[in-house]
Design goal:
With about 270 residues, the protein is of the alpha/beta class. The chain has helices spanning about 35-50, 75-85, 105-115, 130-135, 145-165, 220-230, 240-255, and strands at about 10, 55, 90-95, 120-125, 170-175, 180, 190, 195-200, 215, 235. The strands form three sheets. It has a six-stranded parallel β-sheet, covered by helices on one side. The two termini are about 25 Å apart.
Length: about 270
């Protein structure tokens, strides 16, 4: 008899619902998308319903059709920190753009969330394509597809280096010797490449799970490369079982070619578990 398989359930916050007009339903509140009480209570409901995680999308610009529907407005790590304090075991996944953030700040922010939540944080790495986001950060246009994913791979390399810059027992707290942090167990990042220059260790120790679970969403060849290198869970947009299997086989083959063993548990962790 085949071993039983476990189904993982993830709640994607979509404010009033996935339909653009869902907020018009008589029972729905137009301001719920910026109401922390609504977001926390929804997450608590998901936790009681045995969901593995809640997920917050994000985008660093005003939506093009903000006149017609609610959108994700509050910064994900802030919302997830509020949810962490009101829940006990559900995973907490937030989205960040590798195109419009510095890796050191993001590493610190999500390491903090991971510690505050007791090791339940996950981070979804995305590239950002639209021109309105570029305008917000002083650019006339988004980078081309290949550049965005090259930057995302380098960005995630740095996140992992920073999260691993503390060994598990680096925080000595030895009152007899007066040693607070064992600096021999601190491994500063030394990153000097095309997009980022980072020199030094994170100022936050490792969490109970080591570091946040890394997620990725993107079906292109460049997205596949990012996922194969770094992702521990992947959002896909396959519409048939056959397409899903094809993508899974390609991803696993590429991950194995990059030195990640098939069936690796590192690719199967779920935030909160």
């Amino acid at each position: 008899m085949a071993a039983p398989r476990r189904l993982h359930l993830n709640l994607n916050f979509l404010s009033a619902g996935s339909h653009a007009a869902a907020w018009l339903w008589p029972g729905n509140r137009p301001d719920a998308f910026v109401d922390p009480t609504y977001l926390v209570e929804t997450a608590r409901l998901a936790e009681r319903g045995t969901f593995d995680a809640v997920f917050l999308a994000d985008h660093p610009s005003m939506p093009a059709r903000s006149d017609l529907r609610p959108f994700q407005a509050l910064e994900p790590s802030i919302v997830l920190t509020a949810i962490a304090g009101a829940t006990s075991h559900i995973g907490l996944i937030g989205t960040i753009s590798s195109g419009y953030n510095a890796p050191w700040n993001i590493a610190r922010r999500f390491a903090s969330l991971d510690i505050i939540s007791g090791g339940r944080a996950g981070i979804n790495i995305v590239t950002t394509t639209d021109r309105t986001a570029a305008f917000n950060f002083g650019s006339e246009a988004a980078a081309d597809h290949a550049t965005r994913y090259d930057r995302a791979i380098e960005f995630t390399d740095i996140l992992k280096a920073l999260w691993n810059s503390w060994q598990d027992d680096a925080l000595a707290g030895d009152k007899a010797t007066g040693v607070f942090i064992d600096r021999a167990r601190i491994n500063p990042a030394h990153h000097h490449e095309r997009y980022f220059q980072v020199q030094g260790a994170l100022n936050v120790p490792r969490s109970r799970q080591g570091h946040p679970v890394i997620l990725q969403a993107g079906g292109s060849d460049y997205g596949l490369e990012l996922a194969a290198r770094h992702a521990e869970a992947v959002f896909t947009a396959a519409h048939t079982p056959e397409d899903s299997l094809t993508y899974a086989h390609r991803l696993r083959a590429r991950a194995e070619a990059l030195g990640r063993p098939p069936g690796s548990k590192a690719g199967q962790r779920v935030a909160g578990h």
